[in-house]
Write a structure and sequence with these properties.
alpha/beta; nine-stranded mixed beta sheet; single chain; six-stranded mixed beta sheet
Length: 459
Amino acid sequence: MLHAHIIGLGRSGSAAARLLQQNGWTVVLSDRGNSETLRQQQQQLERDGITVQLGQSPSLDTSPPQLIVASPGVPWDLPLLVEARTKGIETIGEMELAWRHLNASPWVGITGTNGKTTTTALTAAIFQAANLNAPACGNIGYAACELALQKDSPYDWIVAELSSYQIESSSQLAPQIGIWTTFTPDHLSRHYTLENYYKIKASLLNRSQAQIFNGDDPYLRDVGLKEWSNAVWTSVRGKEGLLCKRDRGVYLDEDGWVVAFEERILSASSLKMVGDHNQQNLLMAVAAARLAGIEKRAIAQAVATFPGVPHRLEYICTHAGADFINDSKATNYDAAQVGLASVATPTLLIAGGELKEGDDTAWIETIKAKAVKVLLIGDAATPFSERLQQSGYNSFEIVKTMENAVSRASELAQNAKISVVLLSPACASFDQYKSFEHRGEHFRELCLQLAPDGNSARD
């Protein structure tokens, strides 16, 4: 019998284990963690005949498996995975496993440093408005292997948000349409160099039959004509901003309409999300929809009713005259800068968490221009305070926890004119939370306690 080993539990690992078992494999799943949540998952899986080993790493010395599947959060250069590849043991990521079972359906693969979640959610909403069976998966929606488990009938499309982690462990995944939203330094502690990070993302687009690029992203624009001359390019700056002929581009015209392949599609004002970056996300989603043959009516219907993405500039409530907005998904400087630039002023900013590498220059300049005060939480509070002081910005407080931040924000909002209280951390969440979702949900819960009358939606 074929033996497989899954590394990393969670939703993706569990789905991968069940998918392999469904296809006749004997499966062992291991995770270095040993939390109560993991133990509950262990009990459920073991009732179904899947062995789960918690608090340990597998060994390849005796009875090595024929296949190893790594969950998305497992580093691709983990010594065990390097050893397995050296020994000729097939080693893939969970997304690659799903691709092998779902590649009869066309895929839209969406990657980028920032913007990919909104673009993925909007693309899926448009495809679904056209009555297509087109679920979102990957870093949003389902784990990809969950879709493979559920397929009673073929999917019309798979719309997948793909991180660099998932791409580097999925060398065969080849979407029909590939989208690259933005590119700035991120995850360098894992990928080491910007060049390596770029090559990983570029590999997905190289395998895609059609490519869509954000032509307003400085890095992508700089390499565009040399490396991606046949791609579809988008621009919010009008047809003059395109890096391709107009019949191969998608742009905003002088009236604020989306023009795709020389055809007016809809007014960009139909999208009820703030910021130029969201208009750019709209252009890329429309480009994918038109390449897939979706009619204008379905596109307009989906865009007009699109609610946005949780944890990305998500309005929570109004309290003491200030809108409390959850941007917990802004886990790096560039995403946080975009979020802060998009909201009204004066803004009170909550930032901090697990510090990441990156260039904070633009973020700090936006803080100086828009933030009346910054409340600092988590492990990054002290280094952030030092960096702000170095830049000449001194209106900050170290409050350490989210509870303290929301309480202090409420107090300040009642005593001063503040338009927005924005959680936009510019950090990973793992110092205090399980995920950016967990952090955002805690922020939401605390904010709603400030508005007991249920003022959690704009009039």
